[in-house]
Amino acid sequence: MYRLYLIILVFTIVIGCTDKARTEHQVADIQEAYDKGNLTNATNWSHDLISMGNVDTLTINKVGLILDMCNRIESDFTLTEADVNKLLKREYISYTQAERDQWERNNWLEFMIIDGTKHYFKRAVSNLKLILQSRIRQVKPINNPDPQSVFCLNHSRMVIEKSRQNNQPVLPVKMKLSYKITVNADAVPEGEIIRCWLPWPHENTQRQEKITLMRTVPTENIIAPDTVLQRSIYLEKKSSKGKPTVFELQFEYVSMAQYFDLKKSNILPYDTSQTVYKKYTAEQYPQIRFTKEIKYLSDSIIQGVTEPAEKVKRIYYWINNHVIWTGALEYSIIPYIAGYVLKNRRGDCGMQTLLFMSMARYQHIPVKWQSGWMMHPNEVNLHDWCEVYYNGIGWVPLDMSFNLQKSNDVREREFYISGIDSYRLIINEGIGSPLVPHKIFPRSEPYDFQRGEVEWKKGNLYFNQWDYKMTVSYNQTSTNDKSIY
User: Based on the domain organization, do 170 and 58 belong to the same domain?
Assistant: First the structure.
């Protein structure tokens, strides 16, 4: 069973120091039920305890967090065994019982025991399909790349060509974005204020410029300063009975590609006294940790190499060759994401990036998180990547999950080790950073910030209580270079 994140442990310690024996015993029972996967008991007992009179605030907060985590787990593990059987049949995945048992032992068909019954991850079957396909490719490689891979390869060739003279951003693409969050009708009582944080682009970056706000709904807003690591635009609105509450944002910006030919660059030794070195080679709990598994694996991959670029390349190749992309559980219910990836040899873009960052930082390579959205035509989606700091060059983009490209040209094949395409929306320059204005309740996504966050005076509104939608249009721009459109 997944453990609660650190804040719950803190509350447990504090509550253990109180002299309210009856409350302490009930909280312990609730925690034990949660840990054993008895979520119905944990939920019911939590409500009973909260409804008691004279319950202290810390206990209410503790129990509220347990309720929140029960909701999050149940929202991710929604499929019954009958549901999975139907989906396997729909996907034409045939199997013997022995194979089915092996899939579950390997966690390829991911499930949890909740209230004594198997509940499968809502993307368990689609992930299983990806896993099985990857194993087939290991035996018989597929020579026909998908359209997205073809698009990125052609684009990266143009980026490399345009970047021959220097490392400056090239191939600008102007985009107009409309983003909408719709909170479910009656998610909160009528007339209550709903607080909403929508993603807003960073400006202090070479690859993103000319950000122009066109409109918000409602019109009054607060844009977080560009100095915060996770940037947002904040809106408030009253709820109406029987109607969804809608928050909208529309803006334009220009995004550019960038490529660094590290073989032709003068990479200097790191100055270990610099702040950038100290900050970005450090652990960052709970998700960037130098566990014994991380240390052993990264040391075995590096094998005495000292050059920073070669260290980065070796780690990138290992993850590319050993970890496949699959849909992810919500990060808030994974206590240690890099460990999950190592154990299961799979994960989405952010999970792979956190594994890369953990191994690179352990090897004394400064790396920082960067994320937002991938904005490729027909492939607009949430996305995470990172940047590697090389002394004498600066920050160099690296996209772990875009992998090595199918090309005989080493620069094209390794493009995403030291380059990035024009189709990005940069929202975050770090993980787990506070929002502006301050969010009172635990975030739906405590580490990343791409979809947005919503709350009201009595608690967080989780992802199952609202929907989001991104609409993008592309235009030509004449800034420095011609757009590829």
Answer: no
